[in-house]
Amino acid sequence: MNHSRPDPEDLLRRVQDEELRARRGRLKIFLGAAPGVGKTFTMLEAARAKRAEGLDVVVGVAETHGRSETAALLEGLERIPKRPVEYRETRLEEFDLDAAIARHPALLLVDELAHTNVPGSRHAKRWQDVEELLARGINVYTTLNVQHLESLNDVVAGITGVQVRETIPDVVLERADEVELVDVTADALQQRLREGKVYVPDAAERAIDRFFRKGNLIALRELALRRTAERVDAQMRGYMAERGIRETWAAAERLLVCIGPSPVAARLVRATARMATRLHADWVALHVETLGNQRLSATAREELVRALELAAQLGGRPVTVSGSSVADEILAYARTHNVNRIVVGKPERGGWRDRLRGSLLDALVRRSGAIEVLAITGEEGGEPARPVLPQRAPWGEYAAAASVALVPTAIGLILRAAEAELSTTDAAMLYLLGVVVAASRYRQGPAALTSVLSIALFDFAFVPPYYTFSFGDARYGLTFAVMLVVALMMSRLTARVRNQAEASRERERHTATLYALSRDLASARTSDELIGLTLKHLHDTFATESVLFLPDTAGRVRPVEPPAYAIDDRETGVAQWTYDQRQPAGHGTSTLPAAVALYVPLAVSDRSVGVLGIRPTGRHQFRDPGQRRLLDALAGQAAVAFERFTLAERSRRTEVAVEAERLRTTLLSSLSHDLRTPLGAIEGAGTTLLHDDGPSDAGARRELAGTIVQESQRMSRLVANLLDMVRVETGALEVQREWLPLSDVAGVALIRTEDQLEGRRVTTDFPPSLPLVPVDEVLLEQVFVNLLENAAKHTPAGSPIDIGAEEGNDEVVVTVADRGPGVPAGEEERVFDKFQRAGGATGPGVGLGLTICRGIVTAHGGRIWVERRPGGGALFRFTIPIIGTPPTLEAEPTDIEPWTAPTLPSSS
C-alpha cells in the first residue's frame, strides 16, 4: 500500500470543509475554569482591540454582574437593545437574535454561551442562537465555563457536589475556530471573591465554603487546561494534515504498541501501559489484519482478542486495521495520529523468512524517521513465548493437492501412448496448470506440495531415461530448479489473489449488511419499527437470539417484550451495568462472564440509549475480531437511529410545550381583557342601581338592567366558545343529526346575531330546490353564528353580508361572504388556528370562533375554507355531506299530520 499518495476522499472532504468555513462566521470561545476568572473582561479587551483595528464590533450580550471594571470596557461599544419578554407575569430581557441578524456586524459579542433562553424564544439555548449567527456569516466572540460541557457534567458534579443544569454539547467547543483559556490560580480567584469582584461579600463567603473551595477550583482548573490542551492538539494535527506534513511533531507523548496473535502480546500491552503511566501519555494497541493471518487458529485468535481486551482495561485504545503490509499500516497510523513512540516485541530468534526479507522490527527502524521504535521483551521472567502459527490445513487438503499432480501425469501418458507428439515443454506446462489449480483451491502448504510433486513426476515420467528420478542431461537440473521456483511463486501469488478475493467478499458482505440496516432504520417512523428492524437484522446477520433493553425515565433498563431468551434478574443486572458503564459485558468478556448472553451498549457521544443482548450460538462466535467489529458497527448504527428518534421526539415535545405556553399566555391575555370588560360593565351598572342616589327614572334603571343582561350574555358566549373548543380538542363533540332545511338554521342564527348585524344589509339565497340536510341543528346554528360574528368584527360598519347555499355532488355548499378587507394571501389556513385574530378585528373575542367552526364542520364530515372574494372581501365556504336519502314533504301539509323530522343516529 502506498501511503504517500493523497487520499482523494480526504482531499474532497478538506475542500468541502474549507468551503463551509468560508461561508460560516468564525467562533472564538473564551474558556474559564469557574465564574470570576475574567472571561468577559478578556473578551471585551479583545473586542476593543479589534475595534481599534477598524473592525465593526457590536455587543449583543455582555453581562457585567455589577463589576465596574467590566462595565468600563463597554463604554463606546455599540450595543443591541435586549428584547423584552413576558414570562409568568414577569418582564424579562433576552438577547435579540433578529436585531443582531439585521445589524449583521463583522464581530458580535455574545456572553454566556450556555445560557438558557426564556420559553417561547426561537431557540431553547443561546448556543443555538450563536449557531444561527455563524451560519449567516457573522463572527462571534463568546464565553464559557468548563463545567457547562455536557461530557464533564457528571465529573463536575462529583467534584463540587453541584449538578450543573445548563450544558452545551461538546461538539460546539470542538467546532470553535479558536479557544482562548482565561486562567488564574485558585488562590487568586478566592482573593477576588473576598474583594467582592465576583459576588457580594456575604455570598462570596458562602461560595468559598462550597463551590469555590480551593480543591474544587484546582480540579476545575485542571479540567479546563486539559480540554484546552486537547483542543490545541487537535488543531495541530489538523494543521499537519492540511499542509501534508507526514513527520511526527513530538508535542505530546503518544505511544503505539503493535499487537499480533502471540502470547507475548499481553506482555507488550502491560509493559506499554506501565510506560504510558510514567509518561502520562495516551497509548494505542494496534493490530494489523493481513491476508496471511485471516486463517488463524482459534487459539491464536483468542490470544489476540485477550490482548486487545487487556489494552482497553488498562486504559489504552484497541484499534484494528487491515492491509497487506504490517509495517506500512503501522507507520501510516502512527504518522496520522502523531505517535512519537512505537513499541514492538523483540524477536527472540530469526527465521529464514526474516533473513531473506527482513523482520518487522527491521522495517520499522529503517522507515520510521523521527518516530522512536522501542523493542522490548515485555515482563521479566516466565516461560519463553511459544510462536503462534496459522491454522494448519487439514490432511485431506494435502491428499487432494497430491492427487492434482497426478492428473497432468495421466494426461501426458495417455497422449504419449496415443503416439501424439508431446515435448517436455508441453508436459511442463501441464504441470504448471495443475499448480495453478491447486493454489486456487487449497492453502499454501498443500499448494507447495503440489509444486514439489509436479517436479518429481515430471522428471519421473517425461524426462529421459523414463520412469526413473535420474536425468541424462545436466541441463535438466537448471530446468527443474527454475520450474520449481516458478511453481512456488505461482502458487503463492494465486493464493494471495484468492485471499484478497475472500477478504473483498467479506468486506462487501459487511458493507451490504450495514447499508441495509442503515436504510431500513432511516425509514422507520416509530420506536416499535426501530426495535423490530434492529432485532431482525441481528438475527439475519448472526443467526442468534437477541434482546433489546431500553431505559425508563429513572434510567433502569427493561427488556423489550417479548424477549427472545429467558431474562432473569441476573441478566437484567448485567444489562444495567453495560448501560451505566457504556462497556460490553457478559458472555465472552472479562466482566460478568457467567451471563448467558453478550451485552453491548448502544452508545452515542455522551451517553447510552439502550443495550443489545445477544446469546451466541457458539462459545467463540464473537471472539473473532471481524465478527466483533461487525457487531459493534451494527450496534453503532442502531444507537444513532434510536438517538435520532429520541431527539426528534424530544424536539416534538419541546415544540408542543412551547406552543402550549404560547397558547396559555394568549388565552390568559385575551381572557383577562374580554372578561374584565363585561365584568366592569356589570359591576358599574349593578353598583349604580344599588346606590342610594342612583337614577330614579324607570327608563334609566331599565337601561342599566339591560346592560347587565347584555354583558352577561356576552360572557356566556365567551365561556360557551371555550367549552366548545374543549369539546372539539378532546373529541367529545357528538353530532345528533336530523333532516332540516338550511334556511331555517340560518334564520335562527340571524336572529341570534341581530344586535351585531344592526345597520347591515344581509342577503340570503337558499333555492327552493335545495334538499334537506342531515345536521345537528344546535351545532350548525353555532357555525352560522360564528361566521356572522366574524364578518361583523372584520368588516366596516354598514357593509353588506351575503349568505347562500347550492347543491353539489352528494353535498350542499354553504357560503358566507362579506365586503371587508379579506384574508391576506398565505393566511388562508392560519385563520382557522386557535387564538388567531386578524389585525382588523374591532370587537371582543379570543380567536376561537373559526377554529370551532372547523371542528363542527369536520364532525359532520364536511370541510371549510376561505377564499378571496372577487371585488374585495372574504368568502367562507363549508360543505355538508348528504348521508342517506332526504325525506320528502307533501304538497299540502294542512291535510296531513304535522311532519316531524326523523332523527338520525348520532356520530362523533
What is the secondary structure topology, with strand pairs?
Layout (H helix, E strand, L loop, with lengths): L7 H16 L3 E6 L6 H14 L4 E5 L6 H7 L3 E2 L3 E5 L2 E5 L2 H7 L3 E4 L15 H10 L3 E7 L7 H8 L9 H6 L2 E5 L3 H9 L6 H9 L4 H29 L11 E6 L4 H16 L2 E8 L8 H16 L3 E6 L3 H11 L4 E5 L6 H6 L2 H8 L4 E5 L18 H23 L6 H18 L2 H19 L12 H49 L3 H16 L2 E7 L5 E3 L9 H13 L3 E2 L11 E6 L4 E8 L9 H66 L7 H33 L7 E3 L1 H11 L9 E4 L7 E3 L1 H18 L6 E7 L3 E8 L30 H11 L4 E5 L5 E8 L27
Parallel strand pairs: 1-7, 1-8, 2-3, 2-6, 6-7, 9-10, 9-12, 10-11, 12-13, 20-22
Antiparallel strand pairs: 4-5, 14-15, 14-18, 16-17, 17-18, 19-21, 22-23, 23-25, 24-25
Helix pairs in contact: 2-3, 8-10, 11-12, 13-15, 16-17, 16-18, 17-18, 17-19, 18-19, 19-20, 19-22, 20-22, 22-23, 23-26, 24-25, 25-26
Entry summary:
This protein is of the alpha/beta class and 908 residues long.
What can you see in these coordinates?
The chain has 908 residues and is α/β, with parallel strands linked by helices. 49% of the residues lie in helices and 15% in strands. The protein has a six-stranded parallel β-sheet with strand order 3-2-6-7-1-8, sandwiched between helices. Strands 11-10-9-12-13 form a five-stranded parallel β-sheet, sandwiched between helices. The longest helix is centred in the last third of the chain and has 66 residues, at 625-690.
